[in-house]
Amino acid sequence: MLRSAYIETSVVSYLTARRNQRDLIVAAHQELTREWWESRRRDFTLFASAVVIEEALRGDEMFANARMALIEQMRLADVTPAARQLAAQLLLEAGLPAKANADALHIAICAVNGIDYLLTWNCTHLANAAMIPRVNNICRAAGFEPPYICTPEELMVG
Predict the structure, then answer these.
(1) Which among 87, 102, 117, 131 has the fewest CB atoms less than 10 Å away?
(2) What is the pTM of this model?
(3) In a domain, 53, yes or no
């Protein structure tokens, strides 16, 4: 049985964006994301959510359409009342700022739907080593196993 991976909006954006010529770190992340997509995506059942769709539709219409074309290849995880409640709890107890509501929802959707991995390049609120232990404790206290939150680079080899 395939493991499951939730593809957060930053990953979808890196896959569809023009190659960054000015920021070497962003360019490297884009390349690693494309490499993961080509070599590893078939090893997982891929998920997105209505939250990813909402974020992906923002901005330039051409790029939004490209992001949606990728998302259409994935299953949609349910944004349930339990996920919304867990997200609210994460905002209150994990130290996430109020503006990180979508980030808390990404985590909660994964936990409530039993998704194994949350793939992201958001290292401020998601793939953050200082934040993850608090997130994991809150999810487990609420009766859910948290997703393993990581970047595509961390999930390159399996």
Answers:
(1) 102
(2) 0.94
(3) yes
